[in-house]
């Protein structure tokens, strides 16, 4: 039986968080056995904000090393850098001609950004969903792992497929959302009503995968709980978001259900929960960071992974691009 094709991407960053790991990367790793997985470092998307060239190159290598350390296997999955496959930009332009100004204006992320950065907003951010659509459609993707903040973009992609296919035939596969497992949404440490984000301006809100133990202890100790007396350690996202967030982190890292953790911490203090989070998370990060250092120190191997991944990605992308050219009357040149 042919495996379903999965595509997912993340911008290059050496500051991937425990939220990125639990909410996405750990689940990408599990999908490798049952799906044909294509994982992209979307450096072209990173261009929507100004980048220092040397920092961007470093962040790209950092991200590949982190993917490998987390368990993504380049012998099983395709790992590649977006800018090394020119078909992404080419299909992005073509699809922009089948996208409507109004539907891009309605994108929530665009409207939020426009409200605070009107004078510095660039066209790249406005057309971000179009390039994301090209990323997905090039590989005839069937499943796209999505979080809440990407659902609208995927719906946009699906609309483009339906619009294009209605005119030219079955050129693109209609992608379906792959709903990530429950408990995968890790929140900010100091404001557990918002998602943990590597772009957060307050570093105390996040736990980096490269966090040292001393910093980890400080951040977990300061993490928001509540003022219940006596303390009640219970999973309740609405009324106890801070406690629920710590339980989610501990559950994911320890592979222990939240129900079991609730029973284990019945009658205990919040510091007991935080101590165990530090203990389990510290052990996990030490092992991951050791693996990361092994890969990161071998840039020859990292470049080989990029090169081989790009070759595999180009072969697949070019098949789709050829179909698009033929449908549109463009003369295809491999």
Automatic annotation (TrEMBL):
Q: Which reaction does it catalyse?
A: tRNA(Trp) + L-tryptophan + ATP = L-tryptophyl-tRNA(Trp) + AMP + diphosphate + H(+)
- Motif 'KMSKS' region covers 195-199
Please give the biological process terms from Gene Ontology that the record holds: tryptophanyl-tRNA aminoacylation
According to its UniProt record, the EC number is: 6.1.1.2
Residues that, per the record, bind ATP: 11-13, 19-20, 147-149, 186, 195-199
Sorted UniProt keywords: Aminoacyl-tRNA synthetase, ATP-binding, Cytoplasm, Ligase, Nucleotide-binding, Protein biosynthesis
EC category: ligase
Q: Where in the cell is it found?
A: Cytoplasm
Alphabetized InterPro entries for the sequence: aa-tRNA-synth_I_CS, aa-tRNA-synth_Ic, Rossmann-like_a/b/a_fold, Trp-tRNA-ligase, Trp-tRNA-ligase_bac-type, Trp-tRNA_synthetase
> Which GO cellular component terms are attached?
cytosol
Q: Which residues bind L-tryptophan?
A: 135
Q: Spell out the family assignment given in the record's similarity comment.
A: Belongs to the class-I aminoacyl-tRNA synthetase family.
Q: How does it assemble?
A: Homodimer.
According to UniProt, the name of this protein is Tryptophan--tRNA ligase
Q: Which organism is it from?
A: Candidatus Erwinia haradaeae
């Amino acid at each position: 039986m042919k495996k379903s094709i999965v595509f997912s991407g993340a911008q290059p960053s050496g500051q991937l968080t425990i939220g990125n790991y639990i909410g996405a990367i750990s689940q990408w790793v599990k999908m490798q056995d049952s799906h044909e997985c294509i994982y992209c470092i979307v450096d072209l998307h990173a261009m929507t904000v100004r980048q220092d060239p040397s920092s961007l190159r470093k962040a790209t290598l950092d991200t590949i090393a982190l993917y490998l350390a987390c368990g993504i296997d380049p012998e099983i999955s395709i790992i590649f850098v977006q800018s090394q496959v020119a078909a992404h930009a080419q299909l992005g332009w073509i699809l922009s001609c089948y996208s409507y100004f109004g539907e891009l204006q309605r994108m929530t992320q665009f409207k939020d950004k426009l409200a605070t950065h009107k004078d510095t907003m660039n066209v790249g951010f406005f057309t971000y969903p179009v390039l994301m659509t090209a990323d997905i459609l090039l590989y005839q993707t069937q499943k796209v792992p999505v979080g809440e903040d990407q659902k609208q973009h995927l719906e946009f992609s699906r609309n483009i497929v339906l619009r294009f296919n209605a005119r030219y035939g079955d050129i693109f596969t209609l992608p379906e959302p792959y709903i990530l497992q429950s408990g995968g949404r890790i929140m900010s440490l100091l404001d557990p009503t918002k998602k943990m984000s590597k772009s957060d301006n307050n570093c105390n809100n996040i736990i980096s995968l490269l966090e040292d133990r001393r910093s980890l202890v400080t951040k977990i100790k300061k993490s928001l709980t509540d003022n219940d007396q006596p303390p009640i350690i219970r999973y309740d996202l609405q009324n106890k978001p801070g406690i629920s967030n710590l339980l989610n982190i501990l559950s994911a890292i320890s592979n222990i259900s939240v129900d079991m953790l609730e029973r284990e911490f019945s009658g205990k203090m919040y510091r007991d929960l935080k101590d165990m989070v530090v203990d389990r998370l510290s052990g996990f990060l030490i092992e991951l960071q050791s693996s990361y250092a092994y890969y990161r120190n071998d840039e020859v191997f990292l470049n080989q992974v990029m090169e081989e991944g790009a070759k595999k990605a180009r072969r697949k992308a070019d098949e789709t691009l050829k179909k698009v050219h033929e449908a549109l009357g463009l003369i295809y040149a491999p």
